[in-house]
Design brief:
Rossmann fold, 23 strands, alpha/beta, seven-stranded parallel β-sheet, binds glutamine
Length: 534
């Protein structure tokens, strides 16, 4: 029998519901269960691909090419398994499918209504997500009480009514400590659970997110007012590393209790790999200083590093693996445009992540120039690869006016140009889910840094781009010393470039950051960290 765990949020957004979901998944997996995870988002967009990063954070790309929410990245990193289209749904997808069926007369003349038609479509997707696994943990986007996500809550209520033994609800809510009181307050959590109750949902567990651990007194109050036992109130305080959370939750017997409620056999939890990792994270103290240069998505006075969360995590995974403490610094490429590359002094390595558009691009190219000339380990991801090619063409091959046509449509030397099928799509205003997306094979050339790092000839990596290396310039750039280290298996599309006579200069058209996990760092990030540590 497949089991369903629904995780909702309360009081404030940005609570770390995703990390709670992922951590519980890691615990159940450590008990030997096959675990799947799913995120449902309440917006009407069909996917996250068309939403501004400053609004949404990172767009995480699945193997099968879905542009999804960054929480899927958290699940993959904690579960160490890939997720697919079935693991993500939006209100937009639900409506689109129901309306399609209606037009196709699939409801055979029925009056099509929110309940049961939308809720049945949602339940159908919950079931698709659990297929092949023992349990699926579904994170409900947004917070309880929002008008927009009500239909998803309703679907969970209906599923529980149909299969009471297979469904549990977990509510994750925030416990504030108002500065003037200095005391942790439970009332917002109580009210949040009341709101769930008013929708006909009684959570089996309440997870309290707070700065400090919750004490017994707060647990008792929440238990009393939320109709659960004290043990079923779980404390999830802030910690130095998110990878500690599975251990913190397991210490409170969360996994054991979840199994009991779901009627799953309670097996021993083997969290040794996580314990070893956390011990290492705490132990390493020699810093590995990495500068991440991008055009930053700032919102007011805050830098939303969420837009690059997978890149950040991948750098951390690799640093720990080489026994170094990752120290990441954001460098806004606009600052480099204004004040030059002095700010890049003293770093062990430089990373340029993916991006779109023209803002701050000359600053990025200067940073790449700096890394190349000063022999600082450089790792370019997607845009970071394309712009490395532009930099090389301009400053080594001396091609004046070298650029990507994304910025200069009439560039004299279009080193990077739009892929032919992409040009057509853009003319048709076909922007949704239409980039070159998802996993594609890449063949690595013997003798290259990349081939050595991966230790195999064919690798599969995830993509998200519309532009590509222009093969017209291949010979010219190669003759000047650029190594094409990886291409599509047919040799047509350049996927990796490298430079010789440099401690590490590797740039990739794909997004390796989508396949790194703390227990299994990505081979290229690892090779980069090794070079930077030297
Ligand atoms: N803007 C570039 C392209 O569309 C790079 C995309 C990216 O970095 N994800 O090809």
């Amino acid at each position: 029998m497949s089991k369903f765990i629904f995780v909702s949020g309360g009081v404030i957004s940005g609570l770390g519901k995703g990390i709670t979901t992922a951590s519980l998944g890691a615990i159940l997996q450590a008990k030997g269960f096959k675990v799947s995870a799913m995120k449902v988002d309440m917006y009407l967009n069909i996917d996250a691909g068309t939403i501004r990063p400053s609004e949404h954070g990172e767009v995480f790309v699945t193997m099968d090419g879905l542009e999804s929410d960054q929480d899927l990245g958290n699940y993959e990193r904690f579960l160490g398994r890939p997720l697919y289209r079935v693991n993500y749904a939006t209100t937009g997808q639900i409506y689109a499918e129901v309306l399609r069926k209606e037009r196709a007369f699939e409801y055979e003349g029925e009056d099509v209504e929110a309940i049961p038609h939308l809720t049945d479509e949602i339940i159908r997707r919950f079931k698709a997500a659990v297929k092949g696994s023992d349990v699926v943990i579904v994170e409900l986007g947004g917070t309880v009480g929002e008008y927009q996500n009500g239909i998803f809550f309703e679907a969970t209520r209906i599923l529980k009514m149909r299969e009471p033994k297979n469904v549990i609800q977990i509510h994750v809510a925030y416990l504030p400590v108002p500065g003037n009181l200095g005391e942790m307050k439970t009332k917002p959590v109580q009210q949040s659970v009341r709101m769930l109750n008013s929708m006909g949902i009684q959570p089996e567990f309440v997870v309290g997110r707070s700065e400090q651990p919750m004490d017994d007194k707060r647990k008792e109050r929440i238990a009393l007012f939320c109709n659960i036992a004290k043990d079923e109130v779980i404390s999830n305080p802030n910690v130095a590393s998110i990878y500690e959370i599975p251990l913190i939750l397991d210490d409170q017997k969360f996994g054991d209790m979840v199994c009991k409620k779901l009627g799953l056999p309670n097996r021993k939890t083997n969290l040794k790999p996580w314990r070893d990792l956390v011990a290492k994270i705490k132990r390493v103290d020699q810093p590995l200083k990495i500068a991440v240069v991008g055009k930053y998505f700032s919102s007011g006075n805050f830098v939303l590093s969420d837009a690059y969360i997978s890149v950040i995590e991948s750098i951390k995974h690799a640093s720990w693996a080489v026994n170094r403490k990752p120290v990441l610094t954001w460098i806004d490429s606009m600052d480099i445009e204004k004040n030059g590359t002095d700010c890049l002094k003293g770093y062990d390595g430089i990373v340029v992540p993916g991006g779109f558009g023209s803002r701050g691009i000359e600053g990025i190219i200067s940073a790449i120039h700096y890394a190349r000339e000063n022999k600082i380990p450089y790792f370019g991801l997607c845009y970071g690869m394309q712009l490395a090619c532009v930099e090389f063409a301009r400053n080594v091959v001396k091609l004046k006016g070298a650029h990507t046509t994304e910025i200069d449509a009439k560039a004299k030397h279009a080193i990077i140009h739009v892929m032919p099928d992409q040009e057509k799509k853009m003319l048709e205003k076909n922007y949704g889910g239409s980039m070159r997306l998802g996993a594609w094979d890449c063949r690595l050339i013997p003798g290259t840094v990349s081939r050595k790092a991966y230790g195999q000839e064919i690798v599969s990596e995830r993509h998200r781009h519309r532009y590509e290396f222009n093969n017209t310039y291949r010979d010219q750039l190669e003759k000047a010393g650029l190594t094409i280290a990886g291409t599509t298996p047919d040799g047509q599309l350049v996927e990796i470039i490298e430079l010789k006579n440099h401690p590490f200069f590797v740039a990739v058209q794909f997004h390796p950051e989508f396949q790194s996990s703390p227990l299994k760092p990505h081979p290229l990030f690892l090779a980069f960290a090794k070079a930077a540590a030297k």
